[in-house]
């Protein structure tokens, strides 16, 4: 007999902590953990769509590289992390899921020197129902972006290629967007170049060329997927410096993220692009991205 959500304690999400699988609401982080009180943490997120992980290997490699960059280590191999993530999805019974792996600095032992190298790092994984950074309804009509006044945290201070929770600048930008009646925001660096937005990479289509910023941004797995699709479809693409004016005057703008895929925009700082709907190149890439998902492009099926 098939288990129902009411019968499954993991139906709202499953977490893994201290070697134990738990319902998501039982997964906690100590207030003494430097991951909580100092944002000394790294993480990665991979999605499951129609019962299969997308580009799981890429996410695992980036997660391990991020841990190395922050001088963190956990007692799990790449293969063991993959199995833990799979088991979280399996226990939750989710066909479409947002799946995270997190390493915090940990809790300093009482009486020890204030040295991060002495702290035992903590690993947490969890799977919850699918999350969209930008809702499907907004994606349909095209997201309205603003270019935030708040500058991006300098890369020399916080490496944006290491996925992190240093979101002070992002939260301020989201408030700016909310106050302006927009859906979300993108941030500039100190020199006025476009970087990224809260949880997504950004692209501009300029004279038929897809352009993505070369600085201040996470090297997104979905961003990489978009560039791969551009190469396959014969769409010119560049990674280069992108100015605020270029973004405002672009023919099209779209964003990309694990939690939503390719997400078209229709306005930047109030300027309407095209007919106030997603542009043709944005739509083509979005459609191809999800079509390739359906064909099993770089997927890892979950054995439920």
Write structural notes for this entry.
Strands 7, 8, 9, 10, 11, 12, 13 and 14 form an eight-stranded mixed beta sheet that branches. Strand 7, helix 5 and strand 8 (184-186) form a beta-alpha-beta unit. The longest helix has 15 residues, at 78-92. This protein has helices spanning 34-37, 56-69, 78-92, 136-141, 168-180, 221-233, 244-248, 280-294; strands spanning 14-17, 20-23, 41-49, 52-54, 97-104, 122-129, 143-147, 184-186, 201-206, 209-213, 237-240, 252-257, 261-268, 271-272, 299-301. The protein is of the alpha+beta class. The protein has two domains: 14-129, 2-Layer Sandwich (D-amino Acid Aminotransferase, Chain A, domain 1); 136-295, Alpha-Beta Barrel (D-amino Acid Aminotransferase, Chain A, domain 2), CATH 3.20.10. It contains eight helices and 15 strands. The model has no long low-confidence stretch (mean pLDDT 96). Its EC number is 2.6.1.42. Acts on leucine, isoleucine and valine. This is Probable branched-chain-amino-acid aminotransferase. GO terms for molecular function: branched-chain-amino-acid transaminase activity. One of its GO terms (biological process) is amino acid biosynthetic process.
